[in-house]
Amino acid sequence: MAVPSTSCCGQLGTITGLDVAFPNSTAYAATERAYWSLQEGSLTPSCIVKPTNSQDVIAIISKIVSNGDCQFAIKGQGHAPAAGFANIDNGVLVDMTGLSSISVNGDGSRISVGAGASWLEVYSFLDPMNKTVAGGRNGAVGVGGLTVGGGISYFSPQTGFTCDSVLNFEVVLASGLRINANSTSHLDLFRALKGGVNNFGVVTRFDFSTIPIGDILAGNVAHDISQRHNVFEALANIADAPTYDSHASIVTSLIFSSMTKAWTLRSTPIYTKPDPNPPVYQQLFAIPNITNTMQLTQLHVLANETATPQTNLLFYTTTHGISAELIDRVFDICNSSFYSFDVPGSVRWLISFEPLPTVIVAHGAGRNSLGTSAKDGNAMVLLFTAIWTDSAQSSRIHSKAAGVMADIDFAAREMGLLHKFRYANYAEASQRPIASYGAENVAFLRKVAHKYDPSSVFQKRVPGGFKLGYS
């Protein structure tokens, strides 16, 4: 028989020095407001606990596990939009943002980061040392969630996925044991945590290798939608260059507003060296534009993006080969789908394309759990986002998004360009990113989960996220 979550909350209240926040309290409301999406922020946990060190996490997990079938969720900065991925109804929410300490070793080659920190905190700490980590592009994103989901960074062409820069994970297991997983200890868990999301334990600290950094070239370039084919050609040439420039990182987005029935075409070309006009972007920069805000800046300044109000939000993702023709087809699919789709309130649709060249995946192939390798060839990750105001329209918008994604995948498959990989940090709840890692990696992840969590606590009692599906 399941133990009511209120009983779990009562037990957690006996932990010395740990505050337990309940509905209608200031601390409870602050955590609920911190989620990016209304879907997450609208869930109501029975109580919220906020550990400040790994010993607190050990005590919390031990109490929860000992209390029958009490369910719980783990929250970092709360960026994932899907309901229940980092929050829970009628369960315990463990808010990790109290674990945000940052320190470096003597020469700055290694940084230790609490799992609840944001990437902006990391960049602000490291920039004065002319060091950085291949972390999230928006500074408000959390270190923990991005890393265990893989992580794509401005620096990924130099170092691989964010998880490939991890030197050590400090993890609290369901047994209450705290261990370190790295290249010499618990190597199987070390690999599994690189893309295996929240299936193994609670990561309390990440140790990353750092890389040198100075000023970088950053900004946005906006083009009239009539220039889209020229922009798509430039993007394809950057992404599929015979020798990819490892300092280049670009995202090109198509943005449609249901209010104005108008498209915006915006690119964010980043160059991680202080070069104001790198050759890799010359074709893009030569296209007549509406605005160009490119300038040399520091990473922590770039990553300090303006906070957005909590709103309805969804992600979908796919991966496909490089083709300007396919991106043109994606635009046509979206244009015909969105133009006549009217709902009360406003909807913004964003279709963002970002290169996944072989130089990124080669860094961690076989050493992470993502199942990507250079033999897959250069690819493009597509992030499909919807942002809307009227919650009553959510089911219609989800249905429309699912249909458009199916049409995009069909077009890519028809052209022989559909790839299997689905990036977990961009995936919608109905998608199966872990399955896209391939049968061998799925079997490996299940074996590791069973070894370190034989009672399946993180499969059965942490319902959010992408589960491994073993009993």
Automatic annotation (TrEMBL):
Domain of life: Eukaryota
Pfam family membership, one: FAD_binding_4
PROSITE patterns: FAD_PCMH
Gene Ontology molecular function: FAD binding; oxidoreductase activity
SUPFAM superfamilies xref list: FAD-binding/transporter-associated domain-like
Annotated keywords: FAD, Flavoprotein, Oxidoreductase
Residue stretches making up the FAD-binding PCMH-type domain: 41-213
Family under the similarity heading: Belongs to the oxygen-dependent FAD-linked oxidoreductase family.
PANTHER family given in the database record: BINDING OXIDOREDUCTASE, PUTATIVE (AFU_ORTHOLOGUE AFUA_1G17690)-RELATED, FAD-BINDING PCMH-TYPE DOMAIN-CONTAINING PROTEIN-RELATED
Entry protein name: FAD-binding domain-containing protein
Species whose genome carries this gene: Melanomma pulvis-pyrius CBS 109.77
Organism taxonomic ancestry: Eukaryota, Fungi, Dikarya, Ascomycota, Pezizomycotina
